[in-house]
Amino acid sequence: MESKSAGRFTLGKQSSLAPDRGGGADGDRDRSEEMELPADIDANIRLMYLANEGDLDGIRELLESGVDVNFKDIDGRTVLHVAACQGCLEVIELLLEKGANVDPEDRWGSTPLADAIHYKNNDVIKLLEKHGAKLQIAPMHVKNHRQIPEYEIDSTELDFTDSIQITKGTFHMATWRGIQVAVKRFGEDVITDEDKLKAFRDELSLLQQIRHPNVVQFLGAVTQSSPMMIVTEYLSKGDLRAFLRRKGALKPVLAVRFGLDIARGMNYLHEHKPEPIIHRDLEPSNILRDDSGHLKVADFGLSKLLKMAKPVKEERPLVCEDNSCRYVAPEVFRNEEYDTKVDVFSFALIMQEMIEGYLPMNAKQNDEVPKLYAAKQRPPFRAPLKQYPHGLKELINQCWSENPADRPTFRMVIDRLTYIHDHIAQKQRWKVRPLRCFQKIEVIWKKDRSSKTTNRSSRSTSSDF
Hints:
about 475 residues; Serine Threonine Protein Phosphatase 5, Tetratricopeptide repeat; Phosphorylase Kinase, domain 1; 3 domains; six-stranded antiparallel β-sheet; two-stranded antiparallel sheet; Prot_kinase_dom
């Protein structure tokens, strides 16, 4: 168990991530000078001084007297941090032998391995890695604290005590400054995987630009420590996939209302200035429900900016791993250039699924479905005709057209769905009006009948007299 102190070790080379490192221009110190330690100095801080000097006998004596090898000073630095900075190979071997934690983080998120890398102590790097040390520094880390982005969230402020996985499993619920938030955590491999790092940066860049009632709100990110995270608003109602799994086929009026929510969010992205945003992964798991029952588009991990109105292309062929490939446009599967119309294709499949109550091409395996789309096949319409309000089936057919140019824009989709929604509402009003009319006639008839009965009773009573 590690112990802590209000003391601070200030001599020698400091943390590689500290905003202001002491000890000269590069933190070096002439170790030929003898350090005179105060007699009453805390034993834990004395251990750090001895590690800085490379005093093996002194270190061994203190550890055997009961001093904690994993003690942390006020900055969270351990004796292993100090030894790694100084490049004391024999000291590090002794500390590890005595049970030192190999990957402790100081207050700036730096580990002994990170410090050794910074000060180019190659033998120490090899030794620490041999004992399981892994680089924890976030690749987006800045050396000057003034360069830390405004959206940066201190990872220590995120409380995962009662955390649960939400949506696809990459998101977790957490508490941040008294509110529930959704946190997308990126694995340690993002540090060394250039593709994953680029995806993180792209998603972060997009989220900072987006603000719309039908798009999930970005709150901040953790980029200065590992694991890196993206923090967004938490929507407790879950995603559309879970909702459809519970409810099955939706009533036409609800399906159309949901369709309008999705279309409004997507239209905002497609009309984004100066460059449109392609979502490229629009499917029910990436659409969330808020407390009022409205939908919001989420998860921009595969999104792309359509620069200079030029089509984009995937860097590698599509790999089907889950249901998401059931919503991918054929031009993406064929690894061709594509534009915003791929999202319109995905929208058509979601719209039909809400009416039909089952996955697109539900009888087929995930990896078979994109091939069927490329072969110009589409999911069949099986629901009764009355489930499709006038004009909806035609809109779906147009949205999943083989030729992307024949697919409507989301601005056009909104107009069409608004007309369909108004038409449904008008039909419902016509159903209600006659019913109310008959109810009023019945009330009048009963009232009139009651009045006549009362009059007869009065006349009968008068005649008896």
